[in-house]
Design goal:
Its main location: membrane. This protein is of the alpha+beta class. It has twelve helices and 13 strands.
């Protein structure tokens, strides 16, 4: 199943999204690592409640805390603030149990702009509260306090900046990789298509493209290959057509040259030689007449072939009992068979069968087949004609047991000027156009005229649609 290019882009974007998440995870890990390093330099972690704790709160040295913008408060077991120095966020001298509980709970809340470190002295029975303003802390929200020590602010800001820059660097790298992969997926098949088009333009019609893809480019590949194959066939047909046209002109020239030369020569002889006897003049005039008839027949058949190949040519078929029609046509041909010394055998059903036939044109087919058999076969040849009807078509077989057609000629026997004797002499008198004309007439009826292979003599098969 082919994957669409849009789906591939979606997968690529999904990959970039996952890579972005991976970059965020890396950034978080690096941030956590930086936090562990920086935390050792923060005053809130240096001057903790435990580090300055004394059994007698009067002996607690609060100066380093105060010097770093912090403060300490001592709360006894009665929840009274008995000692306070520096920053004071409690702002009360006496707390209730509930208030003190709320204070302890809120001291660990996220988003407050202070850092509280609280320790209990069991001997002195008091709580030591050390308070520092928060520099920068990320608790799903950014907390900032202007009262924080400038050194902490600089350290934390530098760490955040470095992590942010590294995160942007990772995104840039991932974006570059993604753009490269996407570009390769598009430009690589395009380059192959351009190369194939160039080869096609230069005349290499064997050029084909194999992208090994299953998206729209694969469809474009198939379209290109089909187009190249079609163009190759068209060019081969054009080349063959040009060759056939050249050969046709040579054949026409050759077939006209001999009789015209004979006509011209004998006419000139009759004009210049005044001493010819009447018999000689009659013989020469007969030669002139025969050759003129030959030229006229060739030109008429060339005209007929050209007319059949014209787009304007059309037949006028009528519903015809093909059995009765064939009996009448063969009856017209019997005198020619008998004159040539041929025997004949016809197998035509008595039951009527119908087809749409232009009887005038179809008669030309049988006359040409008969003429072809008589022209190239000796006396005693048997001509057989049979008709059979199928469910959809009617088949007529016209055959003889004569000399047959050489194998090197049979493949092209329906082309113009191809002759069974493979020679171009005037003995047979054929033009080489009869079978071409016959085939085109049958094809105009929607049928086919073919030469049956591997038969004794010559056997033609005609098929037309039955109605």
């Amino acid at each position: 199943m082919r994957r669409r290019l849009s789906n591939e882009f979606f997968m690529n974007y999904l990959m970039v999204f996952l890579l972005s998440l991976l970059a965020a995870v890396f950034a978080f890990l690096i941030l956590n690592f930086a936090d562990n390093i920086i935390s050792k330099t923060l005053v809130k972690n240096i001057y903790t409640a435990n580090s300055i704790m004394q059994y007698d709160y009067a002996k607690i040295d609060a100066s380093p805390v105060i010097q770093n913008s912090g403060g300490i408060q001592i709360i006894d077991k009665e929840y009274r603030v008995v000692y306070s120095q520096g920053m004071d966020t409690i702002k009360k001298q006496q707390l209730t149990a509930a208030e003190f509980t709320d204070f302890l709970t809120n001291s660990k809340s996220k988003g407050i702009p202070y850092n509280y470190d609280i320790a209990f002295n069991p001997k002195g029975e008091f709580w030591l509260v050390v308070t520092f303003p928060t520099s920068i802390r990320l608790d799903f929200s950014i907390v900032y306090n202007r009262e924080a020590v400038s050194k902490d602010m600089k350290n934390v800001a530098a760490a955040f900046t470095l992590v942010f820059l590294f995160y942007l660097f990772l995104l840039a790298v991932f974006a570059a990789v993604y753009s490269r992969v996407t570009a390769v997926q598009i430009t690589k098949p395009l380059r192959k298509l351009i190369e194939g088009t160039r080869l096609l333009k230069e005349g290499d019609y064997s050029a084909r493209i194999d992208l090994r893809l299953k998206n729209e480019f694969a469809e474009l590949q198939d379209t290109f290959n089909d187009m190249a194959e079609r163009i190759g066939r068209e060019m081969a047909l054009r080349k063959q057509s040009e060759e056939d046209r050249r050969k046709l002109i040579l054949d026409i020239s050759h077939d006209l040259k001999n009789p015209l030369a004979s006509i011209s020569g004998y006419a000139e002889l009759c004009m210049e030689n005044k001493n010819l006897t009447l018999k000689e003049q009659g013989d020469y005039l007969k030669i002139i007449h025969n050759n003129s008839q030959r030229v006229n027949k060739l030109l008429m058949e060339l005209f007929e072939l050209s007319r059949l190949e014209s787009p304007q040519f059309s037949i006028k078929p009528v519903r015809t009992d093909i059995c009765e029609y064939l009996r009448q046509t063969l009856g017209e041909l019997l005198p020619y068979f008998e004159q040539a010394g041929f025997n004949y055998a016809f197998d035509i059903p008595d039951e009527a069968c119908y087809a749409m036939v232009d009887t005038v044109q179809m008669s030309r087919v049988f006359h040409n087949l008969s003429d072809n058999a008589i022209r190239y076969n000796p006396e005693g040849t048997v001509v057989s004609v049979s008709l059979s009807k199928g469910s959809e078509e009617i088949t007529i077989v016209f055959e003889d047991d004569g000399i047959g057609i050489p194998s090197n000629v049979s493949e092209n026997i329906f082309k113009p000027f191809v002759r069974a004797d493979d020679s171009r002499n005037s003995k047979t008198g054929g033009t080489g156009l009869g079978l071409s004309i016959a085939q085109k007439i049958v094809e105009a009826h929607g049928g086919s005229l073919t030469l049956r292979p591997d038969t004794k003599g010559c056997s033609f098969k005609i098929t037309i649609a039955a109605i």
